[in-house]
Amino acid sequence: MSVEDLEKKKTIDLRKKYIGPSCKIFFSHDPIKIVQAKGQYMYDEKGRRYLDCINNVAHVGHCHPEVVKAGAEQMRFLNTNTRFLHDNLVLYAQRLQATLPDKLSVCYFVNSGSEANDLALRLAWHYTGNKDIITLENAYHGHVSSLIDISPYKFHQLSDAEQNQFVHVAPSPDVYRGKYRTDHPDAATAYADDVKDITDNVHKRGRKVCLCLMFLFA
């Protein structure tokens, strides 16, 4: 909750002054000012309700009372990092691994999707010794240097950016706006075949694909 309620224009002016321009805002021509959220809805300063279909932060809905309670109780008891020993860390990893195949037995806990994808890249490069990566057009993988370098929006939107020779872009599997749509007899296979073609071409050059980053973050 903010210390004071600002007029929307004042909020916009302060954002322009103190927040870096690369931190984009939704609907830049008329941005929505969100002041409250609950469940699947967010509310602006005028009380208008919006169905939240894009936020990738609140996975169980906004301000879920059980989540809020659990978070407050944990912060009241202990809030530190994983470099100290604590039972909760290993017990949670054990519970998580019980839902996975036996070979997936080691956990790395991270703070964001950016960290997860950066770690996936480093693990793939180290394990395979290969560099080639397949990513999706229009995909966003996170704002760390390693991920920006492989993201299509970098070399599509920035005139001075060139596509890395080890980065290969596959069409997004979108049957509404993509290369193969609802009128295609087997769109899923067609999209999969495009990825196979990229892999085959990499192999013809005497290289191998180390990772397919097929995530498309909202």
Automatic annotation (TrEMBL):
EC number, UniProt record: 4.2.3.2
Localization: Mitochondrion
Reaction catalyzed: phosphoethanolamine + H2O = acetaldehyde + NH4(+) + phosphate
Keywords: Mitochondrion
Top-level division of the source organism's lineage: Eukaryota
Pfam family, any one: Aminotran_3
Needed cofactors: pyridoxal 5'-phosphate
Classification via SUPFAM superfamilies: PLP-dependent transferases
Entry keyword Phosphoprotein: no
Enzyme class of the recorded protein, top EC level: lyase
Known role: Catalyzes the pyridoxal-phosphate-dependent breakdown of phosphoethanolamine, converting it to ammonia, inorganic phosphate and acetaldehyde.
Family: Belongs to the class-III pyridoxal-phosphate-dependent aminotransferase family.
Name of protein: Ethanolamine-phosphate phospho-lyase
